[in-house]
Amino acid sequence: MKNVYINSVCSISAQKTYDNSDFLDEVITYNDTVIPAVNPNYKDFIPPSASRRMAKGIKMSIVAAKIALNEADLENVDAIITGTGMGGLRDSEKFLKAIIENEELYLTPTPFIQSTHNTVGGQIALELGCKGYNFTYVHSSVSFESALLDATLQLQLDEANNILIGGVDELADYTVKIHRIVKHIKAEEINSNKLLASKTKGAVFGEGANFFVLSNKKQTSSYAKVLDVKIINTLPEDTLEQSAISFLEANNLQIKDLDLLILGNNGDIDYDHIYDTLSSNAFNTTPKAYYKHLCGEFNTASSFGIWLAAKILKTQQLPNEVQLNTAPSSSYKTVLLYNQYRGENHSFVLLGKD
Question: Is the pLDDT of residue 200 over 80?
């Protein structure tokens, strides 16, 4: 089977990450429980007349997709695969609110049309004129990993040459209120630099769009090689370490071969111990990093983790802001990412230096 390369990236997040010439040079620190994405200059990519009718998730995705395509020196791709946990939340809320206020009469269909989960993939396809395979995965917190797995298999089997994949989720007022009520969001404001020391229930929520061009052909712009992806819905904590080791062994690797372990810690005292279980035993001396203090927690936050790993592999730099321990590493050739949300939907992604 063919190798799969990440040939370009673009991240729109709570940090100024949409400029690929920078790599967390200026980290924005938040003191809140919900952090919005930093907006790029949308009018540079989308006509203002069209942008006004788009929800934030759609605009973020179109811009991220265009930047990723430009870096890969492509005008189009063979397929577009997106992952989203909640879809067009803002338009969903707008439509439901209109149903109530107008007593189910005189409804404008636009918010309903743009609230469907596959709107992002459809809008990008319209922008590019792409008539190829277009699929959206809505698999909760492994939505992006599902898109990544689909694209990887297609490229390995030579069913496509270039695929655009992305993970996107947006914040919406009413949904945020619901998460606060069920204590999925922290009750108190927390400094993002001190997230892991909070020792309280819930996470800091965020939003973002992270897009990548994957190909079975290496380019000068290549960031990393996708070695393997594994998704496990239910995984007992006492089998987590062995599952990670078995995943490495399936790729002819041992723990000592890892240059970096990137974890999805989000500061929730009820579930961060799962990451501690993995990192404090067999992987104790492995260099470690985390990222959700930068982007917040959302269903496709792991796509920001992939962006981080890809940038580390290409630049061979590990920013101080993401380091979890002081274990040294002279170079970064093999990176393992592990994520879970509230004890479910565990994912392992293995990336290598291209």
Answer: yes
d(CA 288, CA 92) in angstroms, rounded, equals: 38
Q: For residue 45, give the DSSP letter.
A: T
Look at residue 73 and give its three-state secondary structure: coil
pTM of the model: 0.95
For residue 136, give the H/E element and its range: strand 133-137
Distance of CA 253 to the CA centre of its chain: 25
Q: Which residue has the tokens 């496709």?
A: 300
Up-side HSE of residue 235: CA atoms within 13 Å toward CB? 26
Beta-carbon contacts of residue 271 (< 8 Å; ≥ 6 apart): 340, 341, 342, 343
- Residues whose CB falls within 8 Å of the CB of residue 50, separated by 6 or more in sequence, listed in order: none
Q: What are phi and psi of 194, to 5 degrees?
A: -115, 25
| Strand partners of residue 262 | 289, 337
The first and second tokens of residue 307, run together, are 């962006």
pLDDT for position 5: 98
pLDDT digits (tens, 9 = 90+) for 274-303: 999 999 999 999 999 999 999 999 999 999
